[in-house]
Amino acid sequence: MGIIKKKLMAGLLTLAVAASVLGSVTPASAATLTAKQYLTKMEKASKKAKSYEATQTTSMTMDMNGQSMDIKQTNKQIIFQDPIKSKAVTTSKVTAAGTTQTSKSVVYLKETSKGKVYAFTSVDGEPYEKEDYTELYKNMSGMSGSLDTSMYSAAKIVKKSVKVNKIDTVQIEAKMDGSAMDEAMQAMGIDSEQLAQLGIDFKSTDPIQITLWINKKNYLPVKMTMDMTAFCDSLYKNMAAAMNEMSGMDEESTDETESFSFSCSSAKTTAVYKNYNKATKFNFPDFSK
User: Fold this and answer.
1) Against a cut of 0.85, is the pTM above it?
2) Are 271 and 77 in contact, with CB atoms under 8 Å apart?
3) What SS3 class is residue 256?
4) What distances in angstroms separate CA 156 from CA 23, 32, 210, one per listed residue?
5) Which positions ≥6 away from 231 have C-beta within 8 Å?
6) How does pLDDT run across 70-98, given as a tens digit for each residue?
7) What is the DSSP letter of 151?
8) How far apart are the first and last CA of the chain?
């Protein structure tokens, strides 16, 4: 079962990456006409923004073979868009079996004069590691850019005027189904075969519920929430079934060391955007240290 558990953790990491990216990008348009007009204006306004800051918080509660696990993550970003220059500080806390583990990562994105985008990552104070992000950045229209306009469905305005952080906004709800999530993973360079090896089939999952608050004056996004509870629960149960099948076991096995069960009771992300065109300036550190 060691291999299977490693596959599970790889699957969790895949979803964590997906949630992080989806939370940090600026959402795009959807299906319903009135909502689509707002979202299209938001997409255009976001692309014109020279800089902004975002804070994303994610909380997940899951169960692995009867053992509860709580994951809390906060990601703070400063983003300048052209050329791309960004700083993201992520703190994570995982509690399981009465033990809590914490970690902190710092990621800088830097675009060169030749259009190459590199990520410099340091985890828990370790030396920075350099990685070429050019293709990923291009595929996602930039980490601060917009997703494909077909990503969301069933968009509707639920409140025409609501104050968020003292800003007059319009509140829009939409859904992202499994097929759209599968497309997002492919855009991140994760193909269907890789997902299948982890027992992940996004197309059979429940949709992600999304809520957006858009500034009515300048059409810039102010806040976004994603309720991924049903999505994660269906995804992880599918993963467990696939892993049990791979190991030749079924989920009803009485031997806990040989069978696998997994569920998710809560998975939610909130992203708040601010300081458009006046983000805090920063300098790159010495990445050789």
Assistant:
1) no
2) no
3) coil
4) 20, 6, 11
5) 178, 181, 205, 206, 207, 208, 267
6) 999 999 999 998 899 999 999 999 999 88
7) S
8) 39
What crossing angle do the helices spanning 2-24 and 178-187 adopt, rounded to 10°? 90
Structure tokens at 7: 């596959």
Question: Nearest 5 degrees, angle CA 191-CA 203-CA 75?
Answer: 65
| Phi then psi dihedrals of residue 131, to 5 deg | -140, 140
Residue type, 281: K
For the stretch 207-228, what's the b/e string if a residue is b when 16 or more beta carbons lie within 10 angstroms of its beta carbon?
bbbbbbbbbeeebbbbbbbbbb
Q: For the residues 100-113, what does the mean pLDDT come to?
A: 95
What pLDDT is stored for residue 161 in this prediction?
A: 93
Report residue 108 as tokens. Answer: 């800088």
Mean pLDDT over 124-130 rounds to 95
CA 58 to chain centre: 9
DSSP of 202-233: GGGSPPEEEEEEEETTT--EEEEEEE-HHHHH
Which residue from 57, 20, 60, 108 is spatially nearest to 233, judged by alpha carbons? 60
- Lateral strand order in the sheet of 208-215: 129-132, 117-123, 99-111, 84-96, 67-81, 51-64, 262-274, 221-227, 208-215, 167-176, 153-164
Residue 126 in tokens: 């370790």
Cβ(47)–Cβ(29) below 8 Å: no
